[in-house]
Amino acid sequence: MTTASSAESSLAHFVSGVLASDPEIRDLLELEVERQRSTLQLIASENFTSPSVMAASASMLTNKYSEGYPGRRYYGGNVVADEVENLARERAKSLFGAAHANVQPHAGASANLATYLALVEPGDTILAMRLDQGGHLTHGSPVSITGKIYRFVAYGVTPAAADGSGERIDLDQVRDLAKRERPRLIVAGTTAYSRTIDPAPYREIADDIGAKFMFDAAHPAGLIAAGEHPSPVGVADVVTFTTHKTLRGPRGGAILTSEDLGRSIDSAVFPGLQGGPLEHVIAAKAVAFAEAARPEFKQYAAQVRANAVAFAAALAEEGFRLVAGGTDNHLCLVDLRDFDAELTGKIAQEVLDRAGITCNRNQIPDDPRPPFVTSGLRLGTAAETTAGMKEPQMVVVASLIARTLRHRDDESELQAIRAEVSELCAMFDPYPDGLAVS
Ligand SMILES: *Cc1c(COP(=O)(O)O)cnc(C)c1O
After folding, report:
1. Which ligand 1 atom is the nearest neighbour of the CA of 245?
2. Measuring from atom 3 of ligand 1, which residue has the nearest CA?
3. 216 tagged catalytic
4. What is the structure's pLDDT at 249?
5. Mutate to test the pocket of ligand 1, among 131, 191, 240 (most ligand atoms within 8 A of CB)
6. Beta carbons of 249 and 288 less than 8 angstroms apart
7. pLDDT classification of 16: cutoffs 50, 70, 90
8. Mean pLDDT for the chain?
9. Probe ligand 1: pick from 239, 242, 269, max atoms within 8 Å of CB?
10. Catalytic residue at 91?
11. Are 89 and 103 in contact (CB under 8 A)?
């Protein structure tokens, strides 16, 4: 058994041992280690990656230039990098059952942009989810390059219903818009949608109009790998994902596709969009793909969902309205208006931060407030499930959130909650053995 103090020293060693020469950065990293371990991490797109993933991404491969692909590099000295990238590709293919994998995208945004570059021409029409109803910036926001290059048309969710059956992706609208606008590409995938996304109806609609279909699995990639969400692989033409959200790997992106589209996807990533790949991060992706193939990861993903369901029920009990009536995945989208009509997402996020509860404000469908203010909060269970929390802790966290928001003007109550949060986090340390790689 590892004691808390050896965990401390392993984390301290990682930060201060490595960065003895730069006390300014070392001190900041120490503060960040402390922040991550003593506050609750409920941002739905975050997770605690393993010490092995961190070790690989901190490796000497950061020194290597590897423009091109294994066996076809522009520079010498890529014997090892080739093997690393091949291993990452093979592991990604086997984890998701895909014919072709590109593991080079620096991020989810680059994976999406590369897919557009491969499949459509500038000015072409793309059908994707509305940003204010759960879509992502790279699905055609006017402030994103995607919205400047392509003509995006957007679908949304059905109206809210008292019994919770509303606020589901409106597939009739997808179908109608597809027929009317004739997009060359249809995009599924969201950042703030708490229900399962069935890829099958999208495939049908795309086939009806001769469009391609991209599934952006940035959020549910880990659930998909574990069989806890229907897989779009083999249904969509292209599946993009991030490796750092529910998949619990390093910060980065990847693309899965059929053999015949593989070539155009590869050339869209490089040389189309990126220069040299981050082979140290690709090594870390390979580690994460192997971890996600283990039985423990299946248990983890099932627990992430069970925790989200328990969390949703406990939040409803506290008087919050759950958008879409609850959750099938790793996140809850909370409508704050029933709890407190005066409370905005912005105020809630700020006061929760002071209590040590980290989450983000989020627009809810048909939000009357602007995106910077919002009426909602997005709460995810992926990170704290990694730290070992289960259903009973979700009930505690829901009550801490409600107490914080009810007593938001009471400084001493906020201090008391902050102390309770620290105590809870100390019992669920994401790195009980420090950063030792076992
Ligand atoms: C997070 C996310 C992305 C972008 O990922 P980055 O790594 O931040 O670029 C793309 N699409 C969706 C749906 C996401 O949730």
Report:
1. 1
2. 108
3. yes
4. 98
5. 191
6. yes
7. low
8. 95
9. 242
10. no
11. yes
Distance, CA of 242 to CA of 222 (rounded, Å): 9
Which of 245, 248, 361, 418 does the annotation list as catalytic? 245
**Do β-strands 185-188 and 125-129 pair in parallel, antiparallel, or remain unpaired?**
parallel
**Distance between Cα 112 and ligand 1 center (Å):** 8
Catalytic residue at 83? Answer: no
Per the confidence metrics, is the pTM higher than 0.90? Answer: yes
Supply the residue whose CA is at minimum distance from atom 2 of ligand 1. 218
Residue 117 lies in a domain: yes
Collapse the DSSP code of 336 into the 3-class scheme (helix H, G, I; strand E, B; otherwise coil) and give the result.
coil
pLDDT tens track for 48-66: 999 999 999 999 999 999 9
- Per-residue pLDDT at 434: 81
The SS3 of residue 152 is strand
Residue nearest to atom 5 of ligand 1 (CA): 108
The parent domain of residue 355 ranges over 295-427
Rounded to the nearest angstrom, the distance between the alpha carbon of 165 and the centre of ligand 1 is 27
Residue nearest to atom 10 of ligand 1 (CA): 108
Helix pair 391-406, 345-354: axis angle to 10 deg: 110
Please confirm, yes or no, whether 93 is among the known catalytic residues: no
Ligand 1 site residues, Cβ closer than 6 angstroms: 45, 107-109, 112, 136, 138, 189-191, 216, 218-219, 242, 253
The confidence score (pLDDT) of residue 2 equals 43
Last residue within a domain, chosen from 292, 310, 336: 292
Do both 259 and 328 map to the same domain?
A: no
Of all helices (H) and strands (E), which one includes residue 358? Answer: strand 357-358
242 counts as catalytic: yes
CATH number of the domain residue 185 falls in? 3.40.640.10
- From the list 46, 167, 216, 291, the catalytic residue is 216
The predicted-structure confidence for 119-147, as pLDDT tens digits, reads as follows: 999 999 999 999 999 899 999 999 999 99
Give the CA diameter of the chain: 64
The stretch 21-43 carries a mean pLDDT of 91
Looking at the domain assignment, is residue 437 inside a domain? no
Number of domains in the chain: 2
pLDDT digits 0-9 by tens, 65-124? 999 999 999 999 999 999 999 999 999 999 999 999 999 999 999 999 999 999 999 999
- Per DSSP, what are the bridge partners of residue 335? 321, 376
Helix 108-119 vs helix 259-267: crossing angle, to nearest 10? 110
